[in-house]
Design a protein that fits this description.
The complex is a heterotrimer of chains A (about 525), B (about 300) and C (about 350).
Chain A lengths: L2 E12 L3 E12 L3 E5 L6 H9 L6 E6 L2 E3 L4 H6 L2 E4 L11 H6 L13 H14 L15 H14 L4 E5 L9 H14 L3 E6 L2 H7 L2 E6 L2 E7 L5 H9 L17 E11 L5 E11 L2 E6 L6 H9 L6 E6 L2 E2 L5 H5 L2 E4 L3 H5 L6 H5 L3 H4 L4 E2 L4 E2 L1 H14 L16 H13 L5 E5 L7 H16 L3 E5 L3 H7 L2 E6 L2 E7 L5 H14 L6
Parallel strand pairs in A: 3-8, 3-9, 6-7, 7-8, 13-20, 13-21, 16-19, 19-20
Antiparallel strand pairs in A: 1-2, 1-4, 4-5, 9-10, 11-12, 11-14, 14-15, 17-18, 21-22
Helix pairs in contact in A: 15-16
Chain B lengths: L1 H29 L7 H19 L2 H25 L4 H24 L4 E2 L9 E2 L2 H4 L5 H4 L2 E2 H19 L1 H11 L1 H6 L4 H27 L3 E2 L6 H11 L4 H21 L5 H27 L1
Antiparallel strand pairs in B: 1-4, 2-3
Helix pairs in contact in B: 1-7, 1-8, 1-10, 1-11, 1-12, 2-3, 2-4, 2-10, 2-11, 3-4, 3-10, 7-8, 8-10, 11-12, 11-13, 12-13
Chain C lengths: L1 H24 L4 H10 L5 H27 L6 H18 L4 H30 L3 H21 L23 E2 L2 E2 L1 H18 L1 H11 L1 H6 L4 H26 L12 H11 L4 H24 L6 H37 L1
Antiparallel strand pairs in C: 1-2
Classes of the chains: A alpha/beta (about 525), B mainly alpha (about 300), C mainly alpha (about 350).
Chain lengths: ~525, ~300, ~350
Amino acid sequence: MQILIEMKEIIKVFPPNVIAVDKVTADFRKGEIHAIVGENGAGKSTLMKVLYGLEHHNQGEIYLAGHRVNFQDPGEAIAHGIGMVHQEILLISQYTVWENIVLGAEPVNFMGMIDRQRARQLVQKKIDEFQFNLNIDAKVDDISVAAAQKVEILKLLYRNVSVLILDEPTAVLTPQEIPQLFNELRRLRDHGHTILFISHHLEEVLTLSDRITVMRKGKKIATVQASETNKTDLAQMMVGRTVLFTTLREKSTAGKQIFSIENLTYIDGAQHKRLENINIKIHEGEIVGIAGVEGNGQFELVNSIMGLIPTKEGSIRVNDVNLTKADILERRQYISFVSQNRGKMGAAVKASILENVMMTHHRLNPQFTRWKGLLLNDQYARKFTEQIEQQFSVVMDQMDNPFRSLSGGNQQKVILGRELLLSTPFVLLDQPTRGLDVGSIEYVHELILEMRDQNRAILLISADLEELFRIADRILVLHRGKIVADLPTDQTDIEEVGYLMLEGKENDAKETD
Amino acid sequence: MNIITGLINGMISGATPILLAALGGTFTFYAGVFNIAMEGMMLTGAFFAVLGSYYFDSWLMGIVCAIIGSLMMALIFILFAVTLKTDEFVTGIALNLFALGATTYMMRQIFNVKGAFSNPGIVPIPRIHIPLLAKIPILGNILSGQNLIIYITVLVVILSAFIIFKTRFGLRLRAAGYNAPSLDSSGVSSAKIRIWSLIICGVLCGLAGAFLSLGYVTLFSENMSAGRGWISLAAVILVNGNPWGIALISLLFGFTDGLGLLLQQYMPSQFTSMVPYVATLIALYFYSIQARKRKA
Amino acid sequence: MQRKLISGIIGILIALLIGALIMLVQGYNPIQTYAALFNFSLFGFYPLATTLRNSVPLILTGLSASVAFASGPVNLGQPGQLLIGALFATVGGLYLDLPAFLLIPVLILLSMLGGALWSGVAAMLRKWFNMDEFITTLMLNMIADFFTYWAISYPFFDRSAYSPMTPQINTNGWLPIWGEFNSNVIVMVLAFFVIYLVFNRLTAGYEWRITGHNSLFARLGGIKIDKNYVTVMLVTGALAGLAGGLVVMAGPHRFLKGLGANYAWDGVMIAVVANNGLIGTLLYGLFFSALQTGSLGMELITAVPREFIQVLQAVTVLVIVAGRGYLDILIDKTIARQKARERAT
């Protein structure tokens, strides 16, 4: 097969000095499905964004069918037949399917008016041609994620794009929807399209792709034929060492009950039941994991426990103290919280590290203040920050620097340290390892186990089943706002939990949310 | 009868500058620009209208100069907020104060007066008499004999609604506000759309300014926009940018303006002058109550 | 800190350069003009004392805006709060008969009460009806403008005057003047220290700052952001009100039309250039005051009208603010490009 795209020694540095893509040379052939695999932050997406003209490389050359190209913006890339579907759906939810598809390439009449009829016809023709099942007049807001992804692909096909870049397309899909997408992609390949496919799920990469390029820390490690490799080899190349999917659990004897949620139901403003009759009990020294596809009530559960949304039905207790109606400060005497979004909920990134470390402590620990809480005790806060720096081996320059000057892993260490030292009986962890590198993830897991050993009750919400199986004692499965299973980890396996996460979907495929 | 036609005519001319500026604001609103510089653009427009009209002895040149003046403000906004990525709010605040300072300075510099410049040499924008319409009983005095700008404004409302909801530019304009990355990824630069929205806003605020100083009255006075730009911003927010809604709400403000004049017989003028601002607060109150209901 | 100082000085220099260009285009001599400007504002005891005195309302309204913006609320109501504060102090000064050592503090407190009352209206509208303070404070500015205009035209009108103004307040309420030095500066410095202490050292100030950075994080941390919102609005209103009270007590000793001038909007600009930093607000306030104070002398010596200063101020703000953001991006980009080049070889 002929080489269609060549990327030569591409370097991309994010200002001021994060090397995202480090001298990568790769080629992509016409009519192949080419997977690009690597961990979070390996530079896969950045490399593809450079090809698409969304990011501009600092060094290196790109050739398309032998001609040197340098796209300034996606418009130019599309004009040359290269299109990209982003990881997060980039559609305008207020627009209909056909409006989204034609946006940027709209058929118009002489007055500059959009020719609705022609636009809808053109879109319908493409849908029929590629056998996508879509209603062109539906608002994007009302269609499922899988359908929205099809719209993204159609949007590119409508522009007669021959190279499709897909950034982790399966991340938003349920396992049932994945084979359908793969069939569509294979069909496209057989039409002569080239498909570049970013992923970190090795199994799907092996089933779908013809060739695989592995990246690690901005560098290309290798390009291999899918038929000549296997999961273990790929994992080793991705991570740089042998990965042991070992469990860290050990049989712990659960003590008295610390945390309980009883009959919690939450109905949102649009009258949707987001949580239904939730019951959770956690004992001291116990890690309870919540598994579930994102958007099945995790967000509402966290917000209810933290008091961000009012609880009208049901109760929340820690140590027999009823916190159902308590204000947030009172809850924080009993609950430590690590959120999934550091920048939004876990820290004020522009404030200093010191100011971030003392949050909540300044209210709960009288040593942080003088004059009956009126005046801050700067000395104590500094000592405390030093303690966190040492105890959690945080790499920081000066504690007066802004929080965002820390790397992601160090930010999470600071947040974990702060919450851990609140010494509360109950700890709520919402995807505490999201977006971290492997080393940091391992450290976070150790910390969580340490907390367990201090006899705290821990609720761990995670989208990563391997993480849950690694450290949780029990796994609850959240589906459509209901807890559909409560399984001791050693009596179940990933397949069973994965099936339970989706089971409801199989019985009732229509989206309600 | 005369009182009522007077009130309606007062309402229409009170509404016009707010409506024009708000229509400008609606383009930037849809494009996702936090544009609070309408006040400054309008004020600059008003000054240049007088300048053009006075020096060229022509109201048409007055309008042209008003648009040029207001456009210069828009270009500064573009330079800072779009090109240099300065905070839009900060740019808006600084630009409004720049407009206030610059017009006061230029009035002093060019006309050698302080406070206000009025001169018989300033040619006002004419009123248009439409022979057929004028003969209709009662309505004739409202439909005919209005200032040219008022007829233009009616046209602009219709045109804005058409452009925003029916044309290619409109589809992209709204897309820029709803989800700029999506538009960029579709191959259309959202920055360019923002720039165009600001240019349109500049033109319309220029017209609004021209009406203020060559239609509503025939003079320029220091800070003569008097918060109308802010009211137009409130109008845009209140109806989520819909041009028809803006027309309606501007007429409401115009009505309170006219009402204020009428009430002057019964209470001190300072209180009647407050009416449009109080009306804005009341409108905001209803908007907030509505928004809260929708949420709950 | 050092980077801020340097970028501030460079920004001011560029702005002055742009100002010079404008003057050149109009046929004025920029060197002569700037010499006159700073001669009448900085060089000499009298000019300095005048600049200091004039800086008081600028700095106080600037502090009001800085503290508000840095804590979250977009309080743009300084103009209105200043006027109501001035009116409260004036009315108090007209009707209260107390010895100076009592009357002065009472009038100061009254002016702060007036400002806080006016910002409190906006705070309540937000608290009860969720109305955005950004627009309500602007509307309240206009309403305060007309209301005080009415107050000095009718109920508190000085019958012997030809234009709207009140009679002079009780002389016991006049701020003492020592030579050229007006004691309003002392009140301002005191207010600065208090607000600096509150904002940087007290628990409350810490909570305000964090809320200004990220209100959701603050809320999750146990901070009562709604209560703090009201407090910040009241405090910043009081600061602006104090500015108004001091204008009356230090200057004309009465409320006359146009008393607020453009102090409060200048204060907002000062907060913006200072990036809501308190020390920055103080320094830029002094600089703006020097410009405004010198403008009279400039007009006297050269033909440049003093309104030119308003233009210069706005140019300064735009240049510094745009430069601050853009310089950082530019420096970062250059470093990135260099690093990439190193990597390639």
